[in-house]
């Protein structure tokens, strides 16, 4: 299986073929749809010999919808394919020859597991509004009355709403539904091209009368051609502005734009895996970057000395603070800003996290984020990723800078689809054994620590991070403190009875931070 969910085979002429709906072990008669220099794309015309892991698809819309590419194979085969996606990415993109891969964790729920769904709005042949999902690589709306991954009540609500609201096509382009696993209540979000339209409030009240579990109806303004589905502007039409849920004991308030994992039971296993990899102790200072509403960090906060969350979206930061207050935590705080800004704040405050948690979006960590993480010099890093390719790329950067990959485990949050989550742990490389050796320093031009960074590089680093200047003498004194031997006569006093000023403590700490950054100590 390819990581796009298509089966991979070989044509009689030796070219690779990507086949929609194919299963490993199938022997197929396939029609060539697209020809590229090195491969074909094809569709199944006849299954000559079915694979032992092929089963009958349980959704009649599988072929037309394209959202679930694994409904025609056993769960065991699907998990094996997803494990393959992760391992292939880490070998091919990350260059990791030996992988500490652990068995994939399956989802507790295989059907109707999504707590959020985005239904596109289109028209049928009679011009009637209809809701469904876009067919793969198109904007053609496919109705999905038998969908196996969204709650059945979502389908009933969307059907009723399109019947109630008799509008011209294009005014509403999506309906988004969110459900609380804690209480079962539902939020309905209307994504419209207009900030207001006639009949919106009346339709909202009507849908709440028909479906009492709908406690919130919200209008979101975003033009159809824009991406993502929902924009930044929202207005409550009826009911509450958010719904409440809980994950790993962390209470959360979910608004129309909040990020929350779509499969709550599987997400709890994902976060527990992250906590296991983190192995948090009572002395740990934890930095949770891309923290969102703070769910991962808050789940482990009771076991650490301090939790610091970092997130660039102000609304998410405020939500995380409320969630921490609801848990009664006094050892947690949340900062708003990008990773570089947050790292600078911690460096100025002389806070060094022993553990950094990363939960980036699908595009992965930015280069600036990775540099900020390395500047903070944690003992270990735990990353939760929804894209094995970007996770492998980012882990390669961290590994090359002194953080070997020590643990890796896929987690299936999206049964039936091609998507898979990955949790990794990277631990700072430190010597396992200590031996005594003798070195004749007179025969060495410069120690390895001296070659790590020049005096000028250390001065520039300290100036940028701390905002003050350190002298060559300051740096030489700190080097001497750490046993880094200077050349003869370097900064030696001009007369035997002259006195050299001591290096102030704040400058000692700053220089030591710089030396850690350059891996000199």
Describe, in short, the structure shown.
This protein has 4 domains: 1-54, Nucleic acid-binding proteins (OB fold (Dihydrolipoamide Acetyltransferase, E2P)), CATH 2.40.50.140; 116-247, OB fold (Dihydrolipoamide Acetyltransferase, E2P) (Beta Barrel), CATH 2.40.50; 263-427, Rossmann fold (3-Layer(aba) Sandwich), CATH 3.40.50; 446-517, no CATH class.
Report on this structure.
By secondary structure, the chain is α/β, with parallel strands linked by helices. The chain has four domains: 1-54, Nucleic acid-binding proteins (OB fold (Dihydrolipoamide Acetyltransferase, E2P)); 116-247, OB fold (Dihydrolipoamide Acetyltransferase, E2P) (Beta Barrel); 263-427, Rossmann fold, CATH 3.40.50.150; 446-517, no CATH class. It is 29% helix and 24% strand. The protein has 13 helices and 20 strands. The protein has helices at residues 62-65, 75-92, 152-164, 200-210, 264-278, 295-300, 314-327, 339-348, 367-376, 388-400, 455-466, 472-481, 505-517, and strands spanning 7-10, 16-20, 27-35, 39-49, 116-123, 129-134, 141-142, 172-179, 186-192, 214-221, 233-239, 243-247, 250-254, 285-289, 306-311, 332-336, 355-358, 380-385, 405-411, 421-427. It has a seven-stranded mixed β-sheet. A seven-stranded mixed β-sheet has the order 16-15-14-17-18-20-19, with helices on both faces. Strand 3 (27-35) and strand 4 form a beta hairpin. The protein is globular, with a radius of gyration of 28 Å. The chain starts with 6 loop residues before the first strand and ends with a helix. Residues 441-448 and 487-498 have low confidence and may be disordered.
């Amino acid at each position: 299986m390819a990581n796009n969910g298509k089966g991979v085979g070989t044509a009689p002429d030796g070219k690779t073929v990507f086949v929609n709906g194919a299963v490993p072990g199938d022997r197929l008669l396939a029609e060539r749809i697209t020809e590229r220099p090195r491969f074909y794309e094809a569709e199944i015309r006849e299954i000559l010999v079915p694979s032992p892991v092929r089963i009958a698809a349980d959704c009649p819309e599988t072929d037309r919808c394209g959202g679930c590419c694994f409904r025609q194979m056993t769960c065991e085969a699907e998990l094996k394919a997803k494990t393959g996606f992760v391992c292939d990415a880490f070998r091919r993109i990350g260059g990791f020859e030996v992988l500490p891969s652990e068995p994939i964790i399956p989802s507790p729920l295989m059907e109707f597991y999504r707590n959020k769904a985005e239904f596109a709005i289109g028209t049928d042949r009679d011009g009637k509004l209809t809701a469904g999902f876009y067919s793969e690589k198109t904007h053609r709306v496919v109705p999905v009355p038998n969908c196996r991954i969204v709650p059945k009540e979502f389908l009933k609500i969307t059907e009723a709403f399109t019947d109630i609201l008799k509008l011209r096509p294009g005014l509403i382009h999506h309906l988004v539904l969110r459900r609380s696993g804690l209480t079962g209540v539902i939020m309905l979000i209307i994504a419209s091209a207009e900030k207001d339209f006639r009949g919106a409030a009346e339709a909202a009240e009507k849908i709440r009368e028909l479906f009492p579990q709908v406690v919130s109806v919200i209008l979101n303004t975003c033009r159809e051609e824009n991406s993502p589905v929902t924009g930044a502007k929202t207005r409550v039409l009826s009911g509450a502005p958010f719904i409440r849920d809980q994950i790993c004991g962390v209470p959360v308030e979910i608004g129309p734009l909040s990020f929350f994992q779509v499969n709550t039971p599987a997400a709890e296993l994902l976060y527990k895996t992250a906590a296991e990899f983190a192995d948090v102790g009572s002395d740990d200072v934890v930095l949770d970057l891309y923290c969102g509403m703070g769910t991962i960090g808050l789940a482990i906060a009771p076991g650490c000395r301090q939790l610091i969350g970092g997130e660039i979206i102000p609304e998410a930061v405020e939500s995380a603070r409320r969630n921490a207050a609801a848990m009664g935590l006094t050892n947690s705080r949340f900062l708003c800003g990008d990773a570089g800004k947050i790292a600078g704040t911690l460096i100025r405050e002389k806070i060094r996290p022993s553990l950094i948690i990363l939960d980036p979006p699908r595009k992965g960590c930015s280069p600036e984020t990775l540099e900020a993480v390395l500047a903070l010099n944690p003992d270990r890093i735990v990353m939760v990723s929804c894209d094995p390719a970007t996770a492998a790329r980012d882990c390669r950067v961290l590994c090359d800078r002194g953080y070997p990959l020590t643990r890796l485990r896929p987690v299936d949050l999206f049964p039936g689809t091609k998507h898979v989550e990955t949790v990794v742990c990277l631990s700072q490389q430190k010597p396992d054994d200590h031996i005594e050796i003798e070195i004749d320093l007179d025969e060495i031009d410069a120690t390895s620590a001296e070659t790590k960074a020049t005096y000028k590089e250390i001065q520039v680093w300290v100036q940028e991070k701390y905002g003050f200047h350190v002298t060559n003498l300051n740096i030489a004194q700190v080097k001497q403190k750490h046993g880094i031997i200077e050349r003869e006569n370097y900064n030696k006093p001009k007369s035997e009875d002259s006195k050299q000023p001591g290096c102030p403590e704040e400058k000692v700490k700053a220089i030591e931070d710089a030396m850690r950054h350059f891996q000199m100590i």
